[in-house]
Every structure is written in C-alpha cells, then in structure tokens.
Design goal:
two-stranded parallel sheet, about 170 residues, globular, about 65% helix, mainly alpha, 10 helices
Length: about 170
C-alpha cells in the first residue's frame, strides 16, 4: 500500500518502523535510525536518510545486514526467510525459473562467493534489465576477484539501490 509523504512524516516511530522496517532486508534498525531524520522533503531525501542510517552503523551491523539478504537463484520453497519483496525481485529477473544447469551454475557461484566473503552475493536485480540471469551470473563471477573490503562496500551500495526501489514503491510522489 502506497502512502503519501505527509502520512510518512506524521507516523509514530513505531508505525514508521512497522511500515518500513523490512525495506532493508530483515533489519528494522535502519528504519528506526532513519525515522529520526523526519520530516522528509521528498522520497529521495527519505532514501538518503535510510542510506545514512545504514552507513553510520558499525561494521558488524553492516555485515549482519548483508548476511540478512537471501542468496540469488534459490529454488522455490527452499529459503523460508525469503521476503515477499525479494521473491518478487528475483522472480522479475527470472531467478525463480532457472533450468537445472542454470541452477547448478548459480549454486556454484553462490558457494564460491560465500566461501570467499562469508556473505551472500547482493545485487539490485531491478537495475540489471534484460538478460538478467546472464548479467547477474557474470557479475557474480567478476566480483569474486574483489577484496573483502571492496565487496562489502559494493554490497552496501547494491542494498541502497534495492531499498530505494522499495521506498519509491511504498511512498507516493
């Protein structure tokens, strides 16, 4: 359900967190911190407040946030923690319709990525566009060459992009 910006700015902190606590996957603390920046002049300022809340967190909180994200390309019903938003986003990229070969390839990439970085690969699938499965698999393979520090920074950038789409979906402009 979309809300107006005036409604968002008038919400109690508890209602704000209830409404927006899932925007940053399983991490309502981001919404709690962002709520302190109200009133928001527009949705872009709201996105900036959420991003600032995430970036001001300590590294352990940031890593926990990344780890709260699902792996890409899971089989339907395999990941009970998959949120409705993540399921829709992955479905929109065709990741819920992988062939057995594609699934094996994603599984191998996910395993290699997790082994190297200790967290799931995160990408904003809504920004990928056409040929999403191939583009995502290619990005996973390329980012395996990254350093842990650079990869955490990239994961947080991708999470901000995911959250911005989700916030724009929830707030009418």
């Amino acid at each position: 359900m979309s809300r107006t910006l005036a409604d968002v700015n008038a919400m109690s902190v508890a209602d704000f967190v209830a409404e927006f606590g899932g925007v940053y996957e399983h991490s309502p603390w981001v919404a709690l911190k962002a709520a302190q920046s109200r009133p928001f002049a527009d949705v872009d300022r709201m996105c900036e407040a959420f991003s600032a809340a995430m970036h001001s967190a300590d590294p352990a909180e940031q890593i926990a946030l990344v780890r709260a994200h699902p792996e890409l390309g899971h089989r339907l019903g395999v990941d009970p923690g998959l949120t409705e938003a993540s399921a829709q986003e992955q479905g929109g990229a065709g990741l819920n319709r992988l062939t057995p070969e594609e699934y094996a390839h994603f599984r191998a990439l996910n395993d290699a990525y997790h082994q190297k970085f200790g967290m799931p690969f995160v990408i904003c699938v809504r920004k990928v566009g056409g040929q999403a499965k191939q583009v995502i698999a290619q990005a996973m393979a390329q980012r395996l060459a990254s350093t842990p520090e650079a990869e955490l920074a990239e994961a947080l950038t991708q999470i901000d992009a995911i959250a911005a789409f989700r916030l724009h979906d929830k707030v009418m402009v």
